[in-house]
Amino acid sequence: MKIIVCGLGEVGMHLSDLLVREGHDLTVIEQDPARGAGFEQNIDARVVRGSGTNVATLKNAGADSAEVLLALTSIDEVNLITASLAKALGTKRVIARNHSVLQHEQSLFDFAEHFGIDYFVSPERLAAAALAKEIRSPLAPIIDQFARGTIEVVGVKLEESSKAVGKTLMELKLPSRMRVGILQRGDDISIPRAETELLAGDELLLIGAPDAITPAVLQFQSEAKEKRRRVVLYGAGDVGYGLLDYFSPHEVNLKVIEPDLAQCEELS
Predict the structure, then answer these.
(1) Quick check: 224 pLDDT over 50?
(2) Which of 122, 153, 146 minimizes the C-alpha distance to 242?
(3) d(Cα 38, Cα 44) in Å, to the nearest integer?
(4) Can you tell me the distance from the alpha carbon of 4 to that of 194, in angstroms, rounded to the nearest whole number?
(5) Contact 206, 156 (CB under 8 A)
(6) Does the pTM of the predicted model rise above 0.70?
(7) Three-state DSSP class for residue 98
(8) Is the dihedral of CA 20, 129, 95, 58 positive or negative?
(9) Using CA atoms, how far apart are residues 184 and 202, in angstroms rounded to an integer?
(10) CA-CA-CA-CA torsion for 34, 40, 43, 44, nearest 10 degrees?
(11) Which spans in the chain are helix H?
């Protein structure tokens, strides 16, 4: 497969190495001459020196016939323009790296449609999702995450003291952005209905958005487990900033410590 990688930072370097090992026809765009030369000496890939925001550079790299372009620089705006230009030149699929601030802004504006980008990827966002999974796991075991952590699958087992025992799903009035996908009762597995009455020992599989699943899990827990967890986050950089999206006031009592005053004001 003919692939172009723009940006030889830590992510771009590692990914380029993997792609070459898998036998892909790789071209790398890198602005730093020393970094590009060092990479070209060690890895069997073509290096084009220049910026991905330059049309001539993209054409030289073969963007008019490439199957995939990955814009992986540390600057969101550069990645947006690079991916958008490559798509317009003829690259079949373009992927752009983004950071937490742009991730938040995507709820206000459809950058993918506007710039013609097929997929956004954020290593920091993935790291935040993994941390959130570990922090939340004592409340209920997270079985898996999908869509970059925006959908979770959680397992819950009802104890005798659970408030949900003896009630139907309809009576619990669960959040709208989640579903009880599977109910296991002994050896029997079924898809529960609104009128299904829950019994002690039932095992439930919940699917939905993290901020919807958390208050739902609390309804299945016993009274003794209702207390919110206390979490202290030191550092609100890209990973820390992204981590904040995975928790709601129902779930944790969160305190953030950040040395940068401007960042503190933005977060608050």
Answers:
(1) no
(2) 122
(3) 12
(4) 50
(5) yes
(6) no
(7) coil
(8) negative
(9) 6
(10) 170
(11) 10-21, 33-42, 55-61, 76-89, 100-105, 111-115, 123-136, 169-172, 210-220, 238-243, 261-267
